[in-house]
Write a structure and sequence with these properties.
Strand content: 5-15%
Distance between the termini: 27 Å
Helix content: 40-55%
Shape: globular
Number of domains: 2
Number of helices: 13
Strand order of the largest sheet: 3-2-4-1-5-6
CATH class of the largest domain: Alpha Beta
CATH superfamily of the largest domain: P-loop containing nucleotide triphosphate hydrolases
Number of strands: 6
CATH architecture of the largest domain: 3-Layer(aba) Sandwich
Radius of gyration: 19 Å
Order of helices and strands: EHEHEHEHHHHHEHHHHEH
Length: 311
Amino acid sequence: MDIPYSMTNTLIVVVGPTAIGKTSLSIQLAKHFNCEIVSADSRQFYKEMRIGTAVPTLEELQQSKHHFIQHKSIQETYSVGDFEKDALEILNKLFEKNEYAILVGGSGLYVDAVTKGFDSFPEISGDVREALKKKHEDEGIESLQQQLKTLDPIYYEKVDIHNTHRVMRALEVCISSGKPYSSFITKTPKKRPFNIIKIGITAERAIIYDRINQRVDIMIKEGLLEEVKGLYDHKSLNALNTVGYKEIFEYIEGNWDLDFAISEIKKNTRRFAKRQLTWFRKDKEIIWFDYQDNIESVISYIQKNATENNS
């Protein structure tokens, strides 16, 4: 994409595990820098999935303008490549009117798409896709997980292996190309026409897990069960093969009782948070702050680095 370079612009990237407080911090930063927020949380793209994906509240959305929140339907196909293109186009427009923009989310692959870019992936044959779908139907996600572990152990350690769509996408590439999916993730980041400052939020593991458990309880109180019941007829769609939805589907089908389904949501979300941290901690450009650090220290770090980059 032809984007005019303007290295006086700065993209503030806010990452961290689920339920750590990324939305709150990004809104505070957006207010301070008078800029807008681009979401890189791939689960929050879908308008039908509000409660189970912890979409920012109406009040939060009114405090700062957000992009890529509930802008797609679960019926639509939307790849990380599509997001990379769309996000860069939005950022180009945002940087025309402001020095700063914020990218926030826990989907490491989507954050990397904007900040580093991806190489071109091979074409996938319909036969490969159908064969993997049938294998999933016949043998379950565990069989696909083991196949990915064999074909691409590097990506297996990074990906949320409970996300059926991500696992199947990686296998499609592995099988179609004869090469690991991870080999197509660019080794040399693409040069972006703006500065990038990466902020990570974290806490002790016990605190992260406690915050996750509390968030799931809030989701149940807010009506997660009713939201998932309303989507049951579409449960085979890739977007719904995700934590918080697939467990409730098991309850609806009578395979689990509700208490067990809720406990599985908490367990699988904790596992997801662990994988998020594994992904982000490999990125040495991220500067980590404790979730309780005051906003002034974060702002000070950003301003100092933005000034140094522009000098």
